[in-house]
Amino acid sequence: MAAPTEVGAAGGVCANAQLNPIRNAAAVFMVKVLSDYRYHSYYWLAMPRKYDLRCPVARTLNIIGDRWAILVLRDFFLYGPRRFQDFEQSLKGITPGVLSRRLKDFEKRGVIKARLYSEHPPRQEYSLTAKGRELGPILSAMKRWGERHA
User: Fold this and answer.
1) 44 and 60: one domain?
2) H-run or E-run covering 69
């Protein structure tokens, strides 16, 4: 796939306006570029979703740093095992798609486990694993910091 370029006056291509495509991205947004010729061009740019670093903090953020992830974890610590609809009621504004992705990602990474509680229709109850419970002190520290400074 060729990198998008900006079209300037008389249809010429501005070499300095080339954008490199970003791969493995989840979030996409539109950027407005103003050229030297005052023509506007729009590009869809993708923001990388995960950090590609060896740092333990960055690797932790790859697991719990997505939007809504900390609040999903908070609900586990406040209420214990939860069902999908429980999260929808307590996390006002989260879309079902985002909630589903967070739960699947946590399950894939071993932070939570799912237990089938109904077969028709299939429904699951989620709970923290031992690995997930180890995040408790992080959330407690965030709560204390928020009480003092936010």
Assistant:
1) no
2) helix 69-79
